[in-house]
Design a protein that fits this description.
six-stranded mixed β-sheet; 355 residues; four-stranded antiparallel β-sheet; alpha+beta; single chain
Amino acid sequence: MRLKVAVLFLIMIQLRTEAMQVTSSGPQTIQKAQGEEVNLGCTYSPGPQDTGELDIEWSNVSPDMTLKDKLILAYSGGQTHYYDHSLSKRLKFITDPKQGDATISISDLKLSDKATYQCKVKKSPGVDMRKVTLLVMVPPSVPKCWVEGSEEKGGTISLRCKSSQGSIPLSYVWRRESGGAMPSTATQDPQSGELLIRNHTDSNTGSYVCEAKNTVGKTQCKYALHAYNPTNKVGVIVGAVIGALLLLLLLLFLIWLLICCCHKRRYEKEAANEIREDVQAPESRPSSIHSSRHSSRQSSLHSVLGYRSHPGVNYSSVRNHLPSVSESGHIYTGPTSAGDRLAPLKYDHRYGYPV
């Protein structure tokens, strides 16, 4: 009984050894740059018992185990069939699949081509398969080199380097191209691309090169480092203060001019309005003018002499000189003609003048 089991085990091993095998031994993970071409290897060797029709399938393995794999290329009945139109013009077998090599090539790689691909070879009753992962990466773009701050002697210099594009991991390395070896006080960070040089001196001047790289490419940029004497910060501050004061005075002067201009315009406008309103009144009749002037002169004379007007009393101007009047005396005007005498006038306290 033991002998039969052993013989059956040996037969199974022999059949397994002589069955269909995919013999490709390339890397399971391939990294390529965007735009390049890649070969996904899949060589096979059928066993003596594998006499059925050859059937080869290349599929895109879904990372979600609950979803089906996507068939992209197949070979059966001596014909090649394409199932992914986005890859049909960039995907092909590199040789005749019947010759034991089902390797495919993908040209002009795109970021969307990143995936795990499976090669499955069937020839009844044998079947075998192999998976390979393709990583499409972006090479670093030409970096930008610059210095942050000033390049004054005695200070700390910060040289920076940065690529705008590039797949991670992305690293930066600074080296001195001319002027000697890297300064002893220099330290650099490969991740951020910063090169710090402390206590900057003339001996540190020269050309520096920054190289940005990842697994699919590398580029570089250069920067010419100088050393300048420290600036007079006190003078700069004083100059800035004086400039600010001058600017403030100029602003105040402009505001004053604006206010004066506004006042001048308002005054001119008011003067024009007054001129328009000052219109000559229409002339009155001569008799009215004469009577008004006469009454005005009488009222003026009365106010000068201290007289009070009384209703019913007519006043006339006295042209001749009147003598002084006492409170108890009489007043005479003198003869108006030869031989005539006038009656005496008596001062009346009620009216304030002689009657």
